Amino acid sequence: MSRDELTRLEGAAQTERDKLIVRILADTGMRLGELRALRVDDLVSRGRERFLRLRGKGSRERLVPLQPALYVRLERYIRLTRPEASSPALFLTLNKRPGGVYEPIAEPSVQHMIRYLGEVAGLGKRVYPHLLRHSFATEMLRREMHPIQLRDILGHSSLAMLDRVYSHLAPTDACAALITALTEE
Known about the structure:
The chain has one domain (3-183): hpI Integrase, Chain A (Orthogonal Bundle), CATH 1.10.443. It contains 9 helices and 3 strands. By secondary structure, the protein is mainly alpha-helical. 53% of the residues lie in helices and 9% in strands. It has a 3-stranded antiparallel beta sheet with strand order 1-2-3. Strand 2 and strand 3 form a beta hairpin.
């Protein structure tokens, strides 16, 4: 997905919670399970740097950088929408369940929401959470992010996954990279 399509996808969302879910998936490349596992205390600030603490596959923890504006949006979301929440989960259902509690958002709910937003935004393609992860990784490689840094952000244990999954970059990407490398000499 292009950055324009991602912006349209976020714009189709009606609530700040849904907008944040789209933006976080698009700007961090995290897995859906990692998004669902986020807790309020997973916002981490270290000096001027902002992160989300993720629990990935194999119970490995990692810090994923966040743009400052997204961090501020998340802080505001927590402060304004979470006062009566009893769950530490960051993203909860919009409606109270029997017993008067908000529950963590379910995986099928996020999948359905992303698919629906793609239709509302008129993207003309099947949109799903993992597509946002692939789009993030592809964009970062196109912007010449170092593969080891990208591997760490995505939570892969080796570069082999990047090689297998993201080897689809177009020949024009290789051409642009080569021209850029040769002109920098």
